[in-house]
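INFO batch 0412 | record 1 of 1 | parsing
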Amino acid sequence: MELKIIAYLKPQCGWSMGVREIMKKYNLKYEDRDIINEQVQFQEMVEKSGKTLSPCVEVNGKMLIDVSGDEVEQYLVENKFIIKKNMKTEVPTDSACQGH
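INFO prediction complete | emitting tokens
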């Protein structure tokens, strides 16, 4: 099954970096949308999710709101989009933004 993933992320946030790391870990194609520098992307995220919290990750039309990389990975595994890999990541997948 083809996955369509749109990730609404901040450029330098621990949570956002964790989501990117999960995409890299599983070699998943996704759209990385910058919600800080592109106001239209932030507005689209808010319209779709009803929330201003990020990261938000849309997987085949289902919006995951205010999630960590770990939560995205868990959703993808539970819905059989991926098979869980037990391997270390280069950056933490569940780390908060610093200074936010």
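INFO post-check: The domain at 5-78 is CATH 3.40.30.10 (Glutaredoxin).
INFO record closed
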